[in-house]
Fold these 4 entries.
Entry 1:
Amino acid sequence: MDNPIYILGIESSCDDTSASVLKNNEILSNVTANQEVHSKYGGVVPELASRAHQQNIVPVVQQALVQANIKKEELSAIAFTKGPGLMGSLLVGTSFAKSLAMGLEIPLLDVNHMQAHILAHFIKNDTSKIPPFPFICLTISGGHTQIVKVSNYFDFEILGETIDDAVGEAFDKSAKILGLPYPGGPLIDKYAQKGNPKAYKFSKPKVGDLDFSFSGLKTGILYFIQREQKNNPNFIKENLFDICASIQHTISEILMDKLKNTVKQTQIKHIAIAGGVSANSEIRKRLQLTEKHFGWTTYIPKFEYTTDNAAMIAITGYYKYINKHYSNVSVTAKARLKVTE
C-alpha cells in the first residue's frame, strides 16, 4: 500500500460531536465538542443533544481536517457511528456522513459504536501495546457492561453481560444519591482517592459466573444512605470520601471477580478494557495488578480513547476499508445494536 489511506471518522451517538482523521492506523486529529447543556438536567436530554450535534458537526469536521492538514478531497472514505445510541443524535452523524461521501464520491463505512470502543486498542501510538487475537475485552460504559471475546477485527462473542443496569449507571446513580452533580462517576473516582475503601461494606450481587447486575447494589447504597442519614443528617458530608471509596471498591471487585472467572473458563490471559468507565483509576489500577498476581497481559486505552470519540470510529473504519466492508447509501442508524451485529 504505497498511497496512504485517509479515513474521516464521525461520532455522534450521545452528547459529544467528534471528528477524527486517520492516516492508515495513526491519528492525525481527534476533535470533540462537548455539550454543557445537559449538566443542569442531571442527564442527557435527547432533543437538546441532536440540536447541538447539528450546530457542532460542520465546525468539528472542518477543524479535524485543518488539524490533520489535509483537504477533504484527499479522504479515502468516511466512517460514521451507525449505533447504538440516541436516535436523534445518530441521525445527524449518519446523514452528514452520507451526504459528504456522496459529494466526494468515496466509500461510506458504517461503524458499530461498541466494536469501535474495543478496536480503539489498535490505534497506533507510542505508549500502548496492541492486543493479539484472541483477547478478552471488558466493555464498560454508561449503557453497557459486557465481557467480549475478540477473535479478529470483526469476530466478537459476548461471554457475559449485565442483566439490568450498566456499571456507568451504577456510578452515576450512586453519585446522585450522594447529591453530586451529573456526570457523577468521575467525581466518585476523585473523592475515592481520599477515602478508605474498606470503610463500608456493600453486598455483591449473586448472578451467573460471567454476568453482571447492578440494580441491587444501587438499591443497597440508597437504603444504606437513608438509614445513616436518619441517625446523622450530616452523614454524607462528614463521610463523603469513605463512601465514594467503598462504592468504587465494591464495583471494582465485582468487575475483577468476573474477569477471573472468564480467564478460568477461556484460558485467555490477554485482557483489555474499553468504554467510558475504563477511565476509572481504581479499575485501571486493579487490572494492572493482575499482571503481577495472575500473569495476565493487560491492555488499558489512553484516556482520550476511553470516552466517546471519533478516533475509535476512524480506526474501525480503516479495518473495514482495507477489508472492503463498504456500506450502501441506504444504511440507516440503529438506536439498539449488539456488539456482534
Note: The chain has two domains: 6-121+305-322, 130-300.
Entry 2:
Amino acid sequence: MNRMFGDRKLGARSVDEITGSRRLRRMRKADWSRRLVQENRLSVDDLIWPIFVIEGENRREEIAAMPGVYRLTLDLAVKEVEEAAKLGIPAIATFPNIALERRDETGSHILDADNILNKASRAIRDAVPEIGIITDAALDPFTSHGHDGILRDGIIVNDETVAQIAEAAVLQAANGADVVAPSDMMDGRVGAIRDALDANGFQDVAIMSYATKFASAFYGPYREAVGTAGLLKGDKKTYYIDHANSDEAVREAEQDLAEGADMIMVKPGLPYLDIIRRLKDEFAVPTFAYQVSGEYAMIKAAGANGWIDAEKAMHESLLCLKRAGCDGILTYFAPDVARLLKAD
C-alpha cells in the first residue's frame, strides 16, 4: 500500500526493502562507533613545520598575510624548534629571508656556507639533534629577481641552475640538513643532487622532491615571508606545472623517482587532492603535500571573520590530505595541531 505524506505518495517499498537492510548510518550513530571505524587519523607524526629564518638576534617579524607565523632570528628559531620537538613534531623545513644587498641575478649567496639557511641548520642541529632538518636548494630567496633559477636574457637557464643547486645541496648537507628538498622544478636537478651528495659522502642524506609543484595563485603570502613578492619579474610558468595538467604531474614524479628521489611532494595541497591520490596509487612511495601559505591564510582569515570554525577547518583540511594518500604534510599549523592532538 502506498503511504501518504501530505498529498504525496511515498511509494510501496520500505527503507529496508530499498536498501536491502544495508543501513550505512548504523556505524555513525554514536561517538564510539564512529571512532571504531574511522579510516584515517591525523597524528603528530604526520607533521612537518616550515619556519622562516632571518639574520640578527632576538627579533620576531610578523608576516601580515600569515597571522601567527613569524620570521625568526636564530636564537628564537632554536627555541621554537625545541618546543616543536617536545610536542613530537618529527621534522622542520627552513626557509630564509635574505637581505636585498646579498641577492643577485644568479643567487650566488646560496653557495655561502655561512648564509642564514646553513647557519640555521648548524644551530638547530646542535640544540635539537633529534629533529629532522629539511632544506630547500631553490634559488628564489637568493635572487634579485625572485625566480627559482638563474635568469639570463629573460630566460631561466636550466643546466647552469642545476649545477648551482647541486653545489648548494652539498653545502646544506655538510651543515646539517637531513633532507634536501629542491623546489625549483628544473629538469634533471634530482639526479644532479643525488650524484653530488653521493660523490661528497652524503649518501644518507635523502631527497624530498617537489615533484609536482604547480604554477599556483596560492603562494602569495609565502613570497611575502621570504621577501620575493615585490621582486618577481614575470611568472614561473616556464618551469612550474600548469594547474590544468595531471598527466604531466605523473610524468614529473616518475622522472624524479627515476633520478633518485626518496620522497615526492605535491604543492599546493588541498586544491590538488586528485594529484596526491594518483601519485600514491601509481608509485606507492612516501608522498607528501605542502599546505601552502595561501591555504593557511584563507583558513585563518575566514576564522578571524567568524565565517568558519578555524580550528575544525584546520583539522579537516589536514585529515583530507591524509585521506588522499599523504604520508606527511608540511603545514604552518603544525605546532597548533600538535598541541591539540596532545591535549586529546
Note: Residues 3 and 10 are 6 Å apart (CA to CA).
Entry 3:
Amino acid sequence: MDLAAEELQFLSIPDILRESISIPKQSPKTFYLITLTLIFPLSFAILAHSLFTHPILSHLENHPTDDPATTRHEWTLLLVFQFCYLIFLFAFSLLSTAAVVFTVASLYTSKPVSFSSTFSAIPKVLKRLFITFVFVALLMLAYNTVFLVFLVIFIIAIDTQNPLLVLFSIIVIFILFLVVHVYITALWHMASVVSVLEPIYGFAAMKKSYELLKGKAGAAAVLVFGYLSICGVIGGIFGSVVVHGGEGHGVFTRIVVGGFLVGVLVIVNLVGLLVQSVFYYVCKSYHHQGIDKMALHDQLGGYLGEYVPLKSSIQLENLDA
C-alpha cells in the first residue's frame, strides 16, 4: 500500500479490492507459503467435511436400525467428527487471520517480511485473537437465540395460518440475517485486525471496531455480504455436484469440479483476509486516526522479541480513549 494514510479514506470498494489483490505481489513467496500451509487446509476442510458427514447422516436417515448400539456408534462417530472439524476450523481460521494481518502490516511499515518471521509472531497474537473470538462467539450466541425464537414463531404462524404473524416473522428473520448477521461478521473481522495490530483485545477490541466501522458500515456490509454470498454459491455447487451428484456426475467430473471449487475458495479466503486488513487502515484514515508507521513497526517488532519503546502513538491513543 503506497498511498498516504490520509488518502486511504477515499478508497472505494473496487479500489479496496484492487489494493488488496496487489499486496501479495510485494512478497509472493511469503503469501504462497501462508496460502499453502494455512488457507488451503482451511478452505479444503470447509468444503470437504460434508463428504464425510453426508454418508453417516444419509445412513441414519435412510437405514434406521433397531440396534441401539449401532445407532449410538454412528451418532458418536458423527459428533466426534463434527467436534474435530470445528476445532480444526477454529484453529486454522485464527492462524490464517494472524498470519495475513501481520504480513500486510509488516509490508505497510516497510518491515522485512518472511514466512519464518510471520510464524514467529503468531504465538504472541493467538491469545488476543482467541479472547476476542470468545466475546464475538457470545454475541453470536445471543443473535442465534433470537434468530431461533423468530424461526419458531414463523413455523407456528404457518401452522396456525396467521398471515400477519407470518409476514412479521419473515421481515424480522430477513432483517436479522441481512443486517444483524452481516454487521456482527464485519465487527468480528475488524476486531480481529484490531487485536493483532493494537494492544487491546476482547470487549475493548470489539468496542474499537464498532467505533472504526462508524461511517463505513455500508461499505463493510457490502464487502461481507459479497464474501458470504460467494462462499454460499461455492458451497452450494460443491454440495450439489460433488457431495450429492453421485448419480448424475462421474467420479472424474466430481474430482475436477471439487478441486476447482477448493481452489476458488482458497483465493476468496485469501482476498477476504487481505480486504479486512486493508479496510482497517481505510477506517483509521476515515476517522483521522493517525497511522504512525514507526509506532506500528515497533508494535510488530515486539511480537518477534525485538526492542519496543515504552511508549508509542498506538499505546497513547488507547490510553487517551
Note: The chain is about 80% helix and 0% strand.
Entry 4:
Amino acid sequence: MTDKTNPVDLITGHRRMRRNRKADWTRRMVQENRLTVDDLIWPIFVVPGSGIVEPIEAMPGVNRMSIDKAVEAAREAADLGIPALATFPNIEMSLRDETGSNSLAANNLINETTRAIKTAVPNIGVITDVALDPFTSHGHDGILRGGEIVNDETVAQIARAAVVQAEAGADIIAPSDMMDGRIGAIRAALDAAGHQDVGIMSYATKFASAFYGPYREAIGTGGLLKGDKKTYYIDPANGTEAMRDAALDVEEGADMLMVKPGLPYLDICWRMKESFGLPVFAYQVSGEYTMIKAAAANGWIDGERVMLETLLAFKRAGCDGILSYFAMDVARILAKRP
C-alpha cells in the first residue's frame, strides 16, 4: 500500500484539529458551550403613568414602559421562557432628593412594578436593585454629604430598602451601589424580616466604566450626576482588587455574583467562576448594546451574529447567565431553532 503520509502529518504528529470541524454534525457534536433562553435576564425600565411605551434614543429598540406595559412585556418574556427580569425605575424629579428617600416608600415605582408583575406573571423572577441613583437628586448611588458619598449611612438605608422590596415580592435583591459591607447588611436585614428565601445577586465587581452612558439617560440620571463614581466603583485597571471585592461579598452571604460591564471584563468572569464556584452573571451594559446596534444600523457588522457571538462569549468565560437588552430578540431567535 502506498504511504500517503503528508509532511503536515509529520509536523503535527498526525494530529489534525480540523477533523472535528469538517461537517456541521461534527461541529455540533463537539460544541463546548451553548446559549439557551435559560441564560437570559432581561433588564427593563419603568416610568410612572399608564399606556406608555417610550423609546430611549440612546438605546435603539429599548423602551421605557409604564407598569401596565411592563406587565405585558413580562408576560411575553415568560411565554418565551426567559427566567427573570431586572427592573429599573425612572421616577419623577419631584420625588428625588439628596438622600434618595423615596427608595424606602412601600408604594414607590419599583415596588409597584414588582407587585404588578408578580401578580400577573408569577412564574417569572423579578430582580430589583437597591442602589439609590434612581432616587437621588445628584445621581449618585449613595447618600451625598459634604461632597462625599457616605458609606455606612447609605448601607443602612439600602438594607431597609431591600426589605421593602422583598415585601413587595422581589425574588432577588441585586445591590449595585458598591458600598462596603452592603451584602452582609442586606442579608441580615432580610433574614431578620423573615425573608430568608430572597436571594442576593451581588454586583460583586462593578467598574468605573465609560460604558454606562445610555443607561443613565434611560433612568434620567445623566444630567444630574455631580462628579464621578470613582470613589466607590472599581478602577478598570484593577483585576486583583475586583477579586478581593468579590471575595468579601461571598463571605458576607452573596448567593450569586455579577460582573459589570460584561464583554471588556471576561477575564474577571472567568476568575470569579474559578475562584468561588458560585453562579456568575455578566451584565452586557447599555454601551455594549448600543455599539452593536449602531454598527449594525450602519451596515458595518451583522448585528444578529455579533449579538449571539457576544452572549456565547460570556458562556465560554464561565458565566451562568447574562443580563442583556438583547434578551427578547435572542429568545425569539432561539425559539425558532429546532
Note: The mean pLDDT is 95.
